[in-house]
Amino acid sequence: LTVAFYKLLSRSYFQPITIRITMEEEFVFRIGHSPDPDDAFMFHALTTGALDTQERKYVHELHDIEMLNGYALEGMFEVSAVSIHSYPMIADRYQLMNCGASMGEGYGPILVSRTELTHDEAKTKTIAVPGLGTSAYLALRIAWGDVDVHVVPFDKILPAVVRGEYDLGLIIHEGQITWANEGLHLILDLGAWWYDWTGLPLPLGGNVVRRDLGDDICQRVTDDIKRSIQYSLSNPDSALEFAKLWGRGIDDDTNREFVGMYVNERTLDYGEDGREAVRRFLREG
């Protein structure tokens, strides 16, 4: 329109100008998710175009989970992965999908240290955590109450603990498997602690879709994501190869183990106990 307007002004005399605007009948949705293997596995089919999503097109933006929690407060993305801990603060703007859950089935974020510590000793130390909006941090608060923490990007925590910059680190993502290679000591597995206490899985992450899209579009987008998860579960080899690109140098076995921990049948549907786990987690928090 601007170009046409300036062409009009540049003419020495006016004559009819026909401007035709052609709009493609498609909708572009931005998906914000973490640069880690389980999210990459989950969204593999949408990222590579393996699914027919009709007029719905998806653009992927990768950010640290704590950044995604902050962006969700602003409503930046139409679809986003978020921490369950942060969901109450965005529930007026986003709906929680019934697919896309990352839940610890008796396992979850872990606390590690360079030295063996009792829980009472560890509670007096400074703990590097991946973000105050993360479910890992809320689980830590529920378990140990008010402790001294310092926010550090999730992929920097293990190296910082190894160097002795922090007494303990709260580890998420593939570090939950690779920590032992660094000669560290396990202080507490928060997923195991939560299960022993409640008998429920530990809800960590979920996918949300923005309410202002309308119920029909929200449902169609949710269905696309569920089909993407199912596609990867049904075609694991190609999806795992893609997921490994985001594993920060992990080997095939570690990649398969980690993805299997957080993308499974529970990811297709929370299940009634999974929904109860979310409600209990937020009540306790």
Could you explain the architecture of this structure?
- The chain has 285 residues and is of the alpha/beta class.
- Helices cover 44% and strands 19% of the residues.
- The protein is built from 15 helices and 11 strands.
- Strands 1, 2, 3, 4, 5 and 11 form a 6-stranded mixed β-sheet that branches. Strands 8-7-9-6-10 form a 5-stranded mixed β-sheet.
- Strand 7, helix 7 and strand 8 form a beta-alpha-beta unit.
- Helix 7 crosses helix 10 (190-198) and helix 11 (215-234) crosses helix 12 (236-243).
- The longest helix is centred in the last third of the chain and has 20 residues, at 215-234.
- The chain is globular and about 55 Å long.
- The chain starts with a helix and ends with a helix.
- The model is unreliable at 1-25 (pLDDT under 50).
